[in-house]
Amino acid sequence: AQKVTQAQTEISVVEKEDVTLDCVYETRDTTYYLFWYKQPPSGELVFLIRRNSFDEQNEISGRYSWNFQKSTSSFNFTITASQVVDSAVYFCALTDDKIIFGKGTRLHILP
Amino acid sequence: DTEVTQTPKHLVMGMTNKKSLKCEQHMGHRAMYWYKQKAKKPPELMFVYSYEKLSINESVPSRFSPECPNSSLLNLHLHALQPEDSALYLCASSQDPLLADLHGELFFGEGSRLTVL
């Protein structure tokens, strides 16, 4: 069965600190996609990144970076120099024919 | 601003009412989705329309009835709902459900927050 685990329910950090959101997944498929979505208080989920199972390169986009390690079935997300606007719920997701979301991590960036 | 527009943003209805949620996108996307999200929970897939045809129904009760009049519009008709149906209903779209390279990249609306009394 496919499963996404985000063990951190809620994290609070002070602005400008770095923070890493953990994501561990389970799948028997050899071809799959991993995602991160952000859900700010306004409600809509915002797509951040997609990785396919054959691409283990880490990615950096501004203050955001992602570490994909198939050996540990993890797809962790790091925000560097966090800002108050980063406060949101972040969902890691896995897809085969449909998207399976983790339970989400609520991130509070304190001024 | 999101490119997927949902109306109304808030809806309060009684258990005997009939109402509809509407979703619109003008990005030329060919797949549209309804998700239900309870507080502090992840979104749960309800329905998927692919090229205007219902392709996935996640065993949703018949009191929820989806409709896709054209490739830009998606409706969710509500009838005889229960208080436990109160939730945020999210609409999403994706470019082409047949293109693996775009698989799973969904564009979400801000949702319709439904309260059933």
* Overall 3D form of chain B: globular
Q: What is the percent of helical residues of chain B?
A: under 10%
Radius of gyration based on Cα positions of chain A: 13 Å
Strand content of chain A: over 45%
Summarize the structure in words.
- The complex is a heterodimer of chains A (111) and B (117).
- With 111 residues, chain A is an all-beta fold.
- In chain A, 0% of the residues lie in helices and 54% in strands.
- In chain A, a hairpin with a 3-residue loop joins strand 10 (88-95) and strand 11.
- The radius of gyration of chain A is 13 Å and the shape is globular.
- Chain B has 117 residues and is an all-beta fold.
- Chain B has no helices and eleven strands.
Short description, anyone?
In chain A, 0% of the residues lie in helices and 54% in strands. Chain A has strands spanning 3-5, 10-14, 19-21, 24-26, 33-39, 46-52, 59-61, 64-69, 74-79, 88-95, 99-101, 105-110.
